[in-house]
Every structure is written in structure tokens, then in C-alpha cells.
Amino acid sequence: MKKQQSGFTLIELIMVIVILGILAAFALPRFADFGADARRATIQGVEGSMKSASAITRSAFLAAGTNPGTVTLEGASVAISNGYASAAGIVVAANITGTSATDNTNTGDFVVTTAATTTTVQAKGATTATACQVVYTAATATVAPTIVRTTTGC
């Protein structure tokens, strides 16, 4: 009488392990770094927030009709420059929170740098100082504000 064998042979088990190893070698690098994708998506979100906030601030300015120096959006006072949010005002209007470039407390997701006519919002963890950022340039008397996104180096 022959006894019936059940289960897997050693060769079958080794082949399964080899196939799983090959799949893992190709799949792991693709899923290893989600940080860059997250920073890129965050910067795209900041760009959208700035564009919306700029349009809403412009609408509030036009609705006021008296050439105000500030408008109030959701209880916050937003400084106006040439009918649009100023460089400092866009951060308030878009409700962007972060640390300044000189602050070492490491709070917030962004490094926010505001100059006279520009505001730069950079994602923390970017590879270089000018990578993975959004730059808002305030409006002039003849040109609407510009919002430029850079997602290289995230």
C-alpha cells in the first residue's frame, strides 16, 4: 500500500520564497519614500489656498468700495496692497501657519519667509533652499499678484 503524501515539497517552498523576494526587490523602492510625494502635494495645496485667498481678498476689497487698507476675512484682518492681499496679508488670508526661517522651534509644516513684496512658503524637509516652495509676489499698480510653485527637490 502506498501512503498518500500531502503538503508542499521543499522545492515548491523555495520557489515561492524566491518569487516573493523578487517582487519585494522591485516593489520596495517604489513605496519607500512617500515623504517627497506628501511635500509635493502639500505645496500644491498651499498654492491653491493662496490663489483662492487672493481672489477672495480682491472680492472683499471691491465689495468695500472705499479703497480700504485692510479687509476682514473670517475675523482676521488682511492687509491690502494695490487691491489684493499684501505679501504679509496672504499668509493671514490663506491661513498658513509655519515657522519663520530664523525660528528654530520646529513647529508647523512650513518655513514662511516674508519680505516687502514677496512671501515664500517652503515645505520642511525640502532638499534645497529654493526647492519645494510657493512664492507669492504682491500686486503692483499695473500687475496682479503672481503665485509661482516649484515642486522640484521635494
Automatic annotation (TrEMBL):
<protein>
    <submittedName>
        <fullName>MSHA pilin protein MshA</fullName>
    </submittedName>
</protein>
<dbReference type="Pfam" id="PF07963">
    <property type="entry name" value="N_methyl"/>
</dbReference>
<keyword id="KW-0472">Membrane</keyword>
<feature type="transmembrane region" description="Helical">
    <location>
        <begin position="7"/>
        <end position="28"/>
    </location>
</feature>
<keyword id="KW-1133">Transmembrane helix</keyword>
<keyword id="KW-0812">Transmembrane</keyword>
<dbReference type="InterPro" id="IPR045584">
    <property type="entry name" value="Pilin-like"/>
</dbReference>
<dbReference type="InterPro" id="IPR012902">
    <property type="entry name" value="N_methyl_site"/>
</dbReference>
